[in-house]
Design a protein that fits this description.
The chain is an alpha/beta fold. The chain is 44% helix and 9% strand. The protein has a single domain, classed as Aldolase class I (TIM Barrel). The chain has 14 helices and eight strands. α6 links the parallel β2 and β3.
């Protein structure tokens, strides 16, 4: 039996695993360009490593259902469309409270309220409505900010947008970095920008979106990851979901290795969020295995790991129904919102 299948993340016939202990926020450190000079990425080695994630571990049957239930608790259930409405956002929040059909949870040995998503992610316009819809659930609202997705608004407006979302009740702020700073190697400007975003967040957690599909070069992705953590980011996130290429395992491996190096240097624990392109249960399992093997068990909890996703939840629910009934159902039987 494989290691993955003997280390289930939740107990199917009992209560879900307890969340990890409270994770202290990343206070950041002073900017140090020497940290960046030593960073190198061997692309062929990255590709060899990620190619094994789906082949070296087999997660089947009860163990697979357990891992997928854990994945649900790490989803930032997201709607970021131009035609969003308050009604759609409130339906999404209802799904976040009850992401899996009650009959499936009962068959797996869970009460209806035992599983919720990690957060709900919306534009600032809908933060107050989402906070109201999630009242009493313990599910935080995350707001995309700083001129999402391009990140080209004036800096002063970016700060005001963060402050407005926090005032409306957002507990997490997903900011977009200025890609120009990364593409031109202006690391000090990137540090100063993220540091100011961190200050504007107050008590809200900062998730820094690198837009890796625009940066492309793995060594620059590594450096940008390190700079954002130095500046105090609580999470680093791959993508907006709006780039031509979003989350990939290659990019994610580079970013989580930077999280590991930052922890070794500072002792601080920083979270990771792949976003965009994580749309099925098989891919979610590969990311969970990546986190377990590269960073350890604490990075399988929502305090340190999130998926930015919408359609992922429907496929996970389908897989759980197959586990319970032996039959696959149509996607329309598992609406997200």
């Amino acid at each position: 039996m494989s290691e993955a299948s003997t280390n289930s993340l939740v107990v199917l016939r009992g209560a879900p695993a307890q969340p990890a202990a409270h994770v202290a926020r990343n206070a950041g450190v002073a900017f140090d360009a020497a940290w960046l000079d030593a960073l190198r990425v061997n692309q062929s080695a990255v590709e060899r490593r990620t190619a094994t994630l789906g082949t070296r571990r087999a997660v089947k049957k009860d163990a697979q259902a357990a891992w997928l239930l854990k994945a649900i608790t790490c989803i930032d259930l997201t709607t970021l469309n131009g035609d969003d409405t308050e009604g759609r956002v409130r339906r999404l929040c209802t799904k976040a409270r009850h992401p899996v059909r009650a009959d499936l949870l009962a068959a797996l040995g869970f009460a209806p309220e035992a599983i919720t998503t990690g957060a709900v992610c919306v534009y600032h316009r809908f933060v107050a409505a989402a906070v109201d819809a999630l009242a009493g659930s313990g599910i935080p609202v995350a707001a995309v900010s700083t001129g999402f997705p391009a990140g080209l608004n004036p800096h002063a407006l970016k700060l005001k947008e963060i402050e407005a979302s926090v005032k409306d009740g957002a507990e997490e702020i997903d900011i977009v970095v200025t890609r120009e700073y990364v593409l031109t190697g202006n690391w000090r400007a990137l540090y100063d920008e993220v540091r100011e975003f961190r200050a504007a967040c107050g008590d809200a957690h900062l998730k820094a979106i690198l837009a890796t599909g625009d940066i492309r070069v793995l060594s620059n992705i590594a450096r940008a990851s390190m700079v954002c953590m130095m500046a105090g980011a609580d999470f680093i996130k791959t993508s907006t979901g709006k780039e031509g290429t979003n989350a990939t395992l290659d990019v994610s491996l580079v970013m989580v290795r930077m999280i590991r190096e930052y922890r070794e240097r500072t002792g601080a624990l920083v979270g990771f969020k792949p976003a965009g392109g994580v749309s099925n249960a098989k891919t979610a399992l590969a990311y969970q295995i990546l986190m377990k093997e590269e960073l350890g068990r604490p990075w399988l909890e929502p305090e340190l790991f999130r998926f930015g996703a919408s359609s992922l939840l429907a496929d996970i629910e389908r897989q759980l129904e197959h586990h319970v009934s032996g039959r696959y159902s149509a996607f329309h039987r598992h609406p997200v919102a």
